[in-house]
Structures are given as C-alpha cells and as structure tokens.
Amino acid sequence: MNDKKKTYNFKAANWIIFLLASFSSLIGGMILILPISSRIFPDFNIFNFILTFGVLVFFVILIVRLTSLAKVEITLDDETISIKWREQFLFHKKRDVIIPFNEIATYVNQSDMNWDWLKIVMNDGKIYRIWHSGWVFKNGDYFNFVSAFVSAVGNHNDAILKEVTKANLEVSPKLVKRAPSFYEGKSGAIMKGFAIVFMVLIPILLILVLIF
C-alpha cells in the first residue's frame, strides 16, 4: 500500500435530524421565549423585536448544531477510504469503516443549494452516504475531501487500466464509475422544466395583475 495519506476533518450532517431539529426548536423556542420576552418587554418596539428574534435564531442554531452535526475524520490513500466518526448524531451510533476502492461500484457527488453529499455504492449493493450542510455551517475540509476522492478514484482506475494493458488481457476492467446525479436524470430534467415554467409564469402573472 502506498504511504501517501491525507486526512480531512469536517462536520457531516444528518438532514432528517436537521429538519426535525429546526422545526421543533423553532416552535419550542417560540413557546418558551416569546412569553418571557413579552414579560420583560411589555411595550413592543423594533429593538425588542430584533432582540427577541435574535435570541430565537440563536436557540434554533444551537439545537441544530448539537443534534444534527457530527465531526468525521476521513483518510484517503491510493487504495482505501477510511471513515472515522469522532462525534455522533443524536440517537445514532455510526461505525468506523474502511472502504477499499476495488470494492466500490459507483459514486456520485452532488451539490444542491446549501446541501452537498457523496454517495458510494459497493459491489455488494451496500451504500455509504456522507452529507454536508452549508446552510449556516460552512466548515472543514468537505470540498477538499470530495475533490481528493474523485482524484483518487481516477488514479485507481488509471492503475487498473495500465495493469490490463501491460498484461495484454482481453477483459473488461472493473472500474469505479461515476453515477449520474439527480439533476442529470429524468426527475432532475422534469424539476428543471417546472422551475423554468414558474420563472416565466410568475412575472407574467404579476404583470397581468398590475394591468387589470
């Protein structure tokens, strides 16, 4: 095994807990904070509103960070990807894992506004997913890791092709393939079509409302 290793640290995200924590903490914060604020500031003004809103936002962000983000350490070399969970999501116990490149069938990395994820599908069908949120928490080496992972996969495939060519084998080499992202498939094309239609229709409707 090549000794060239690179380690990346960042906060992975659990999008389900993220959404649940966001909504529940927002509602809970309103139930807890607004009555207290109304007692402390009986007279409404813009300063009191901004202060109360700021406390509520801080409360939501704190709960989301504590429940839906977990520190992960990923090490790449020429043959494997090692995933070590330094922290855990709420109600989760993720295991550390070492994934050999020669056991990976496909991968796909995708960015969607403030959410990014890497999906790795093994030859036996097992799936590993790593999510990252840039909604409020821009942190760590996630994008550096993804770039290095894609490069390492390319190097792995090149090495296999060289071995096949050198051995003069008439077989199809088992390479790690990049799978199409959501937006490259039919569902993504349909969603893009709807988005374009809405972008065109909304200004037209606004103009018609103003005219009539």
Could you explain how this protein is built, in words?
- With 212 residues, the chain is an alpha+beta fold.
- The protein has one domain: Roll (PH-domain like).
- It is built from four helices and eight strands; from the N terminus they run βααββββββαβα.
- A four-stranded antiparallel sheet has the order 1-2-3-4. The protein has a four-stranded mixed sheet with strand order 7-6-5-8, with no helix packed on it.
- A hairpin with a 2-residue loop joins strand 5 and strand 6.
- Helix 1 runs antiparallel to helix 2 (46-68).
- The chain is elongated and about 85 Å long.
Give short descriptive properties of this protein:
25% strand; 4 helices; 48% helix; 4-stranded mixed beta sheet; alpha+beta; PH-domain like
Main sheet, how many strands, which sense, barrel? 4 strands, antiparallel
Strand residues, percent: 15-25%
Count of the domains: 1
Mean pLDDT: 82
Fourth CATH level, the homologous superfamily: Pleckstrin-homology domain (PH domain)/Phosphotyrosine-binding domain (PTB)
Number of strands: 8
Radius of gyration from the alpha-carbon trace, in angstroms? 24 Å
Number of helices: 4
Shape: elongated
> What is the rounded distance between the termini?
73 Å
Q: Strand order, biggest sheet?
A: 1-2-3-4
CATH class: Mainly Beta
What class, by secondary structure content?
A: alpha+beta
Give the low-pLDDT segments. none
Measured as a percent range, the helix fraction is: 40-55%
CATH architecture type: Roll
Order of helices and strands: EHHEEEEEEHEH
The CATH topology is: PH-domain like
